Structures are given as C-alpha cells and as structure tokens.
Amino acid sequence: MFGLWRTINNVLFYLTLAVGLAGLLGNGLVLWHLGLHIKKGPLSLYLLHLAAADFLFLGCQVGLSAAQAALGTQDSLYFVVPFLGFSAGLWLLAAFTTERCLSHLFPACYRGRRPRHTSAVVCGLIWALTPPAVLLPAHACGLLGARTRPGTCLRYHAASVTWLLSLVCGACGAGLVLFVWGGCCSQRPRPQFFGVTLGSVLLLLLCGLPLVFCWSLRPLLGFLLPLFLPLATLLACVHGSARPLLHFMSGRQPGPRQPLRAVLQRALGEQAPLEAGGLSLPMGLL
C-alpha cells in the first residue's frame, strides 16, 4: 500500500512539473505580446496581470518542486510561496469577471462613469494587499518556521478563508450572471470575451477550488487525505496553464495560420488594424 501511494505521488509530481513548464511557456508568450506588442487598455491590463500571477505561481511551484526533489525535503514554505501567486490570480479573476459583468449589464452608464485608470489602480491594490493577506496567517500558524500562536492563528486563518471564499463566490457569481444575462436575457450579441470569462470561471471551479480547500483545511486534509495536496497542486497548475489556451481558442478563426498577436487581439474583442507600435485596444471597449 505504501509503495502504491509513493508511485501515485511520483506520477502527480512529474505531471505537475510538466504542466507547470507548459504553463510557463504559454503565459510567457501572453506576457510578451500583451506587455510589449499590444497597447494596454482596460481589458488587456487585467489579462496581463492575470498572466503575470499565473506565471509567478507556476514559476514558484516548478522551482520549489525541483528543489524539493533535489534536496529530498518537504517544507510548508513550498506551499505558502506559490500560493501568493495563486491568491493574486484569484483576486484578479474576481475583479476581471465583476467588471466584465458590469460592463455588459450597464454598457452606457458604465462607459461614461468609469474612471480612466480603474484597472491599473485595482491591479496595484491587489498586488499590494495579497502578500499580507497570505503571509500574516501563514506566519501566525507556523507555516513560515515561526512558533504557532493558536489564538492569533485561528483569527487570521478564519479571515483568510473568508477572504478566499468571498473571491471565489464573487468570480463565480459574476460569471453566472454574465452567462444568464448574455446567453438568455440580453438581445445584444455576445461579447468576444464571453468565452474567455466563462472558461476562466469553469477552470476556477474545476481546477482552482481544490487548492483553496487545501489552504483552508490543510492540517485535516494532510492527515486524512495525504494525496489531496499533490492532486490539488496539479489541478492548480492546470488552472494557471490553461488560460493562454482559452485566449487562443477564443481568438482563433478557421483559415490560414495567423500571428499570435492577432489571435490575442481578437480574443480581447477588438479588431483594430496592426500599427507600427502594436495593436491598439481603445478605452471605448468598455
């Protein structure tokens, strides 16, 4: 039985490495094109930061997993550090789906009253608030090598779990409203980002949610279901690696092969002409 558990654990470990490396390549291509070759508008800025969060999570996961295999040690730090990138991506996804939902429900009102730099401010706040939201409960609960403080750990961990579940509910709720309104109630044609948004929400439910459960119930799951953490890590890597594939599937069209920049541009819902400085995504998209 122990040999079977070890074999399954090794298979999950190498699958996680393979998926993580593929996701690093895909998100790296998205970062390259969105960051350098496409002029950043409200939508592309969210997707740029989402790709950065996925790249951070996958890079930390692959690097620390390789270090774990080389050194033969397992430390809680290997779970906390990648979770920073995962949490930032979860927060960005919740903000992205909420804004997409509002822009589709109230297009005229939203276009006229939305401050110009909303996306940049929201993304900056998310990157600033994610480290304390993850590291404070991890430090209080002894995951960073410090002594565990039970009372403080319980309070911080409860706040952290509430925050994570609120983000999941916000992202899924906005995606559900967008699906119902855009698919059944609205007479307007579906926006181009419709598939990307709903695909991201489905990926969160199927592949991202298990890692949230691991963070919330880590001591209990580690004792009762020791294989749940490796499986949840693999699914979280699938969650971070599949988003570039969603962009490609949403933006590609039948016919001759097209540049990746044109595919990304179409996935963002704007067919602006190719310019010397890149592709333009005007503010009027919202």
UniProtKB/TrEMBL annotation:
PANTHER family: MAS-RELATED G-PROTEIN COUPLED RECEPTOR (PTHR11334), MAS-RELATED G-PROTEIN COUPLED RECEPTOR MEMBER G (PTHR11334:SF32)
Membrane-traversing stretches: 12-34, 46-71, 77-97, 118-140, 160-181, 193-213, 219-242
A single GO molecular function term of this UniProt record: G protein-coupled receptor activity
InterPro entries per record: GPCR_Rhodpsn, MRGPCRFAMILY
One GO cellular component term: plasma membrane
Keywords noted in UniProt: Cell membrane, G-protein coupled receptor, Membrane, Receptor, Transducer, Transmembrane, Transmembrane helix
Official protein name in the record: MAS related GPR family member G
Superkingdom of source: Eukaryota
